[in-house]
Write a structure and sequence with these properties.
By secondary structure, the chain is of the alpha+beta class. The chain has three helices and seven strands; from the N terminus they run H-E-E-E-H-H-E-E-E-E. Helix 1 packs across helix 3.
Length: about 160
């Protein structure tokens, strides 16, 4: 039954890693949220997501490949009314991206994810990062994403 909540566990683990390792000053005024969250994800925020659309491998094992990552949502214009009274937010946004992605893009992310929440094992050396991407959502907010694939199961396996 635990494998039904594998996506939730990965999202919770990412939230824990970011909130525990990124300096508080870098996260000032920024919510760090799991993707499966009932609230509105207002910018600026960090969204931790996981799509468990991978296949069980090998069949009957309870081990799955999943796609996960973090997205940072922000607005490119500090004041959408165009009055120009606010400083350009680009520098702060880039600093936030560097801090959050730096906390995730690590060679030991498998161990960090496994240790962050109960009943989760991300198998050693199974994390495969994708290139950083950025784009806009339907509301015009910028979203920078760092995605990865990992091989995992919803149980704590002995080290």
């Amino acid at each position: 039954m635990g494998s039904f909540f594998l996506n939730d566990k990965i999202e919770e683990a990412l939230v824990a890693i970011i909130t525990q390792t990124v300096p508080a000053a870098a996260l000032a005024g920024v919510e760090v949220l799991p993707g499966k969250n009932p609230g509105i994800k207002s910018a600026p925020c960090v969204i931790c997501f996981c799509d468990g659309d991978g296949e069980e491998d090998p069949r009957g094992s309870g081990n799955f490949w999943v796609d996960a990552g973090v997205g940072i949502k922000f607005y490119a214009v500090a004041n959408p009314d165009g009055s120009g009274d606010e400083p350009d937010p680009k520098g702060a946004n880039q600093a936030l991206i560097s801090a959050v992605f730096g906390a995730i893009w690590l060679s030991n992310l498998d161990a960090l994810l496994s240790a962050a929440v109960a009943d989760l094992t991300v198998f050693p050396t199974s994390v495969i990062f994708q290139a950083h991407s950025s784009g806009r959502d339907q509301d015009g907010a910028w979203i920078d994403e760092l995605r990865f694939k990992c091989y995992c199961c919803a149980s704590a396996l002995p080290a």
